[in-house]
Amino acid sequence: MSPSVLVTGAAGQIGTELVRVLRKKYGTEGVTATDKVVRPGSGPGTIVPLDVTDRASVERAFREHAIDTVYHLAAVLSALGEENPDLAWDVNMKGLKNVLDSSAATGVRRLFWPSSIGVFGPDAPKMLAPQDAPLNPTTMYGVTKVAGELLCRYYSLKHDLDVRSLRYPGLISSEAKPGGGTTDYAVEIFYSALKSRAYTCFLRQDTALPMMYMPDALRATVQLMEADRSSVKLHGGYNLSAMSFTPAELSSEIQKRIPGFSVAYAPDQRQKIADSWPMSIDDSAARRDWGWKPEYDLPSMAADMLARLGSRLQTQKDV
Ligand code: NAD
Ligand code: SER
Q1: To 10 degrees, what angle do helices 185-195 and 247-257 make?
Q2: How far is CA 157 from CA 132, 163, 213, 260, 282, in A?
Q3: Which fold has domain 5-172+212-239?
Q4: Which of 271, 142, 151, 143 is nearest to 207 (CA)?
Q5: Would the pLDDT of 319 be above 80?
Q6: Where are the chain's structural domains?
């Protein structure tokens, strides 16, 4: 029997594409997409308003749609979270606790909640940060992700809730724009390359960070959620990896395809956040436990992004 799914934060960078994937698998009726902000004409299709900081509304939505599987994506990301730490705490922690409590109260069976490379701080190894590296983030976003991982583990022990989680790297996608993260430059750069042939990057040219193309992130999410329960050993957050590159390396990959594209560098407050994160992470636990393997590397991601975004920009003037 198909699960009855609810997605929070469905109008965001991941939700826009994940809802489409889930609706293809389980049918439009089987996937209730929700978000606090519902903008007409954007997102994955029909979206129901739901503020995750409102416990009663979350529980009501779970009961009303007889939900057994939740993808909880609503959050405030790293850069926005440093500008507004109270908002980050409220949405990321209160929102997660409301979703966990409502899940336990209504009999939700399985919950997906994304963690992030933001769990790591300056004391984690810079190269191939291991699954069990120390988690001492220096951003409010990272604090909420570490606390969130602990909370997810607690609920999976205490309430037998099947919580599954991935520490996504920075995600690059051609559909919805990113919503306030430190890795957003790796999406913005493609829009600028195609629209104006020039980009000013807010990170230094030598800032290496772990990154992933959205099709791989979507595949990992579905693969983890469909994995046999006995193979999912971690309920906090699996390290997930695909590629690692600097702004200079990404620029030169784009320049191979758009000669004349120029990039300048003007690091801002987001540089400090990037400097606190690892350059690459080790995802051998995900590979071992449920068979994770990425498909896209830097050249194949850049070629596909330019092709997809290029055709969207040609057909949709307001992108
Ligand atoms: P996003 O910012 O694009 O989307 C988040 C969505 O949450 C937005 O549509 C926003 O309207 C919604 N939202 C905010 N406050 C809300 C509230 N109170 N109630 C309901 N909805 C609310 O984020 P995303 O990139 O789609 O990220 C989704 C999840 O994945 C987050 O937990 C994020 O930390 C995690 N993640 C993302 C990345 C990435 O690179 N995109 C990397 C690592 C982890
Ligand atoms: N892409 C995310 C951010 O920069 C990582 O969690 O906030």
Answers
A1: 30
A2: 19, 10, 32, 56, 26
A3: Rossmann fold (3.40.50)
A4: 271
A5: no
A6: 5-172+212-239, 185-208+242-277+296-318
Neighbours of 63 (CB within 10 A): 13
DSSP of 276-291: TS-S-B--HHHHHHH-
pLDDT tens per residue, range 162-215: 999 999 999 999 999 998 999 999 999 999 999 999 999 999 999 999 999 999
Question: pLDDT (tens digit, 9 = 90+) per residue, 210-243?
Answer: 999 999 999 999 999 999 999 999 988 999 999 9
Cβ–ligand 1 distance for 91 under 6 Å, the answer: yes
d(CA 119, CA 136): 7
Both structure tokens of 81: 């979270």
CATH of domain 185-208+242-277+296-318: 3.90.25
258 alpha carbon to ligand 1 midpoint, in Å?
Answer: 31
- 33 Cα to the center of ligand 1, angstroms: 13
